[in-house]
Amino acid sequence: MALPLPARATDEILSRLAALHPKKIDLSLARMERLLEALGHPERRLPKVIHVAGTNGKGSTIAFMRGMLEAAGQSVHVYTSPHLVRFNERIRLGAPGGGRLVSDAALADALDRAEAANAGAPITLFEITTAAGFLLFAEHPADVLLLEVGLGGRLDATNVVDKPLASVITPVSIDHVDFLGTSVEAIAGEKAGIIKPRVPVVVGAQSPDALAVIERAAAKKLAPLFVRGQQWNVQEESGRLVYADEDGLLDLPRPRLVGPHQIDNAGLAVAALRAVKLPAAHDAGILRADWPARLQRLAPGPLSARAPAGVELWLDGGHNAAGGAALAHALCELEERYSRPLVLILGMLGTKDVTGFLQPFAGLVREAIAVPVPGEHAGLKPEDVAAAAVGLGMKASVARDVGSALDGIAREAVVPPPRVLIAGSLYLAGAVLAANGTALG
């Protein structure tokens, strides 16, 4: 019997795998299907799968589903992307009483096996790491796998699962236009590509144009639809979450996750689990759900210590126009509870619509401070981000990093201490968490 491989630094393996990326970038399932066949089709040995696509809210919706399932005693695998600090965050292995992030040793072993089966052929990093994730999920027993789409849906590497328990589509908006199209209709078509024949489709709030595309796709596949505003609904009433569908009414606690948009995400999670009749402890699950860098209060640490005394320091990975609108709405709600001057520290990738993201903040922000996105990412120049803010009538400046931005805020005497939001990129959010020593798990 072969001895288990020793644990190794996964970063070295991931760097080697990244070099296999095809010279021409194209979304395709052919490479994934070839590799999975070489691995013995682990995608056919997975537990029950709930497949989640959409533009915004995928991770939070999954966090709510996981919380409700685990609170009911279910063992839940989770696959999400991107990670914030460590690659291991993408793969959570279910276990009684609550799952755990994959260990370095188990991840390295699965990546090694996927690399050997791929035999040097061109493949994207997301495809080969998804295949490694399927190996782990197939080999560790669990009741449910919550599977998040990486990009789009129709040609995403996760879309090789041919018979999920349910397909879930969160709100669709403009993002990743280079790959998915420039219209909401085109993007909705890509997201609706996860719909499978006769598999229930649970749909969050959508624009009329996006919903029409999803409805047509479901009709072609004879897939039952559970649409917000039709088969189910959710709203906040007197500080509670009230959910209703044809099976009855649920009066639930308001989520710990901050912002009105989390009411929507929690409602979609409830709808998905009720549509497929999975056991769920709704009350306990909504309260235990946690999802880093989604309006997260930054804990005490080396980075947060550089902020002014008494400051409210928030972190969010929002990076598109719809995300900006949701964040601005949430901050308006915070402002109504307790008024503070708002300072926005912003770093964004070059592929994002900075003006679209910032537009909802016009009139709310005392100052915008633009910073670079750390690492080898195609980030916008801070000067360009600041110029976009100025174009919307905001006071704006540039800092060399988030720490320097916080230093500058600390030098100003502002009463009351400001509310500071760091946003614009999940890569920036991950760098902030790492610099602050905030543990994830």
TrEMBL record:
PROSITE patterns in alphabetical order: FOLYLPOLYGLU_SYNT_1, FOLYLPOLYGLU_SYNT_2
Biological pathway: Cofactor biosynthesis; tetrahydrofolate biosynthesis; 7,8-dihydrofolate from 2-amino-4-hydroxy-6-hydroxymethyl-7,8-dihydropteridine diphosphate and 4-aminobenzoate: step 2/2; Cofactor biosynthesis; tetrahydrofolylpolyglutamate biosynthesis
Reaction equations catalysed: (6R)-5,10-methylenetetrahydrofolyl-(gamma-L-Glu)(n) + L-glutamate + ATP = (6R)-5,10-methylenetetrahydrofolyl-(gamma-L-Glu)(n+1) + ADP + phosphate + H(+); 10-formyltetrahydrofolyl-(gamma-L-Glu)(n) + L-glutamate + ATP = 10-formyltetrahydrofolyl-(gamma-L-Glu)(n+1) + ADP + phosphate + H(+); (6S)-5,6,7,8-tetrahydrofolyl-(gamma-L-Glu)(n) + L-glutamate + ATP = (6S)-5,6,7,8-tetrahydrofolyl-(gamma-L-Glu)(n+1) + ADP + phosphate + H(+); 7,8-dihydropteroate + L-glutamate + ATP = 7,8-dihydrofolate + ADP + phosphate + H(+)
EC class of the enzyme, as a word: ligase
EC annotation from Swiss-Prot or TrEMBL: 6.3.2.12, 6.3.2.17
One annotated Gene Ontology cellular component of this protein: cytoplasm
Keyword list, A-Z: ATP-binding, Folate biosynthesis, Ligase, Magnesium, Metal-binding, Nucleotide-binding
Key word Ligase present: yes
Protein's job: Functions in two distinct reactions of the de novo folate biosynthetic pathway. Catalyzes the addition of a glutamate residue to dihydropteroate (7,8-dihydropteroate or H2Pte) to form dihydrofolate (7,8-dihydrofolate monoglutamate or H2Pte-Glu). Also catalyzes successive additions of L-glutamate to tetrahydrofolate or 10-formyltetrahydrofolate or 5,10-methylenetetrahydrofolate, leading to folylpolyglutamate derivatives.
Name used for this protein in its record: Dihydrofolate synthase/folylpolyglutamate synthase
Annotated organism of origin: Xanthobacter flavus
